[in-house]
Amino acid sequence: MTEGKTETLQYRFDGPEHLPVLILGPSLGTTWHMWDRQIPELTKQWRVFRFDLPGHGGAPAHPAASVADLATRLLATLEGLGVHRFGYAGCALGGAVGIELALRHPERLASLALIAASPRFGTADEFRQRGVIVRTNGLDPIARSAPERWFTGGFAAAQPAITEWAVQMVRTTDPGCYIAACEALASFDVRAGLGSVGVPTLVLVGSEDQVTGPAEARTLVAGIPDARLAVVPGASHLVPVEQPAAVTDLLVRHFSTAWQPLPENATGHVVLPAAAPAAPVAVAPQPAPVAAIAPAAAPPQTQGAPDTYDAGIKVRREVLGDAHVDRILEQTDAFSEDFQELVTRYAWGEVWDRPGLDRRTRSCVTLTALVAGGHLDELAVHTRAALRNGLTPDEIKEVLLQAAVYCGVPAASRAFRVAQQVVREETTPPE
């Protein structure tokens, strides 16, 4: 065993140096120790490389801006160690990193396993709301709710030590890095690119996973040309911890049989022969029923370069949230559609998308202008947007105090009442 650090990712090796490298990627809020119970068996055939996400497990707190950024940091770490080709298994956010590697650097991957993963993790609103809660309340509310997201109720009750370990693992994560990882997942969406994943892939999911469950797993299998599905009974989201023996057995069988060597005349890109539809992988010790996999619906294709409307609707959703924008668009009719297009193109596609100010600053300016104009309905909307853009409640309070001096105390008094209610709603952790 050797351990070390690089400027990019904190990592650990286990197993003999002469064996091929197998990488294990962690999920959000966990450390490389989530894989401890797989190590004894996996190191019989592979040199296992584990890494920590930024700010997790004592790793340097250098937030990553996107899943692609995490993949780039991982490759930079591996380059420094002389590791050029490897198998990869990742759980949840670690699985998203694996998909990025398969799409951007297929020549590096010999085989891939995606555990509790999805081509899109919920909605952007869900993860940005989690970031708002962390900015306001710290990580304690997220840590206390982790066991119910990660484990079945029976496992959590029977394994109090593991349950407490999970809580402490989240609680000791750097908040800024956790928020950045939430933002990375909020913007992660590779549904349109799954057909380009060209390595043998195992998609593994717990039957009781309520976070990224069997439906998301089947979407991956339907979209990836050479993918097989394994459903582990009696397991929730953190299936390698809850059902370690079943996961270990599946990983050993997958990487033993689907490790794809590079041909001698390889140019760096792997071409797979056409494959028959893959059968589900049986789960030891008893086979798990797997539902039929329907073809994934093809995403709509746009022609030509995106115009200001495309950029505008993207920024509008990122700032105001999908739920708000969907509600506005559902209410749009022939009378109001031209106005909504004007707002989307001009306000969001041109002004909000300009590089001269960051979104935090634009939120400060917007809140002040709305106080001055007495636009309380829009003030509520943009108070939520300010929280999503990274302002804390204390910073919003300072903006409103500044507005009181220059826009008038009566206007600011009304604004405080509106903003106070919004902050309470947005920063109260769900029960």
Give a description of the structure.
The protein has 18 helices and eight strands. It starts with a strand and ends with a helix. Helices cover 50% and strands 10% of the residues. Strand 7 (201-206), helix 9 and strand 8 form a beta-alpha-beta unit. Helix 4 (124-137) packs antiparallel against helix 8 (175-186) and helix 12 (308-320) crosses helix 13 (322-331). By secondary structure, it is of the alpha/beta class. It is elongated. Strands 1-2-4-3-5-6-7-8 form an eight-stranded mixed beta sheet, sandwiched between helices.
Q: What is shown here, in short?
A:
This protein is α/β, with parallel strands linked by helices and 431 residues long.
- Tell me, briefly, the overall form: elongated
Q: What spatial order of strands do you see in the largest sheet?
A: 1-2-4-3-5-6-7-8
Order of helices and strands: EEEHEHEHEHHHHHEHEHHHHHHHHH
User: Percent helix among the residues?
Assistant: 40-55%
Number of strands: 8
Keywords:
431 residues; 8 strands; alpha/beta; elongated
Sequence-ordered SSE layout with sheet pairings:
Elements (H helix, E strand, L loop, with lengths): L1 E4 L4 E5 L6 E5 L13 H4 L4 E6 L14 H15 L4 E6 L1 H12 L4 E7 L8 H14 L2 H11 L2 H6 L1 H12 L3 H12 L14 E6 L7 H10 L3 E6 L6 H4 L1 H14 L50 H13 L1 H10 L5 H15 L7 H15 L2 H13 L4 H15 L1 H19 L4
Parallel strand pairs: 3-4, 3-5, 5-6, 6-7, 7-8
Antiparallel strand pairs: 1-2, 2-4
Helix pairs in contact: 2-3, 4-8, 5-7, 12-13, 12-14, 15-16, 15-17, 16-18, 17-18
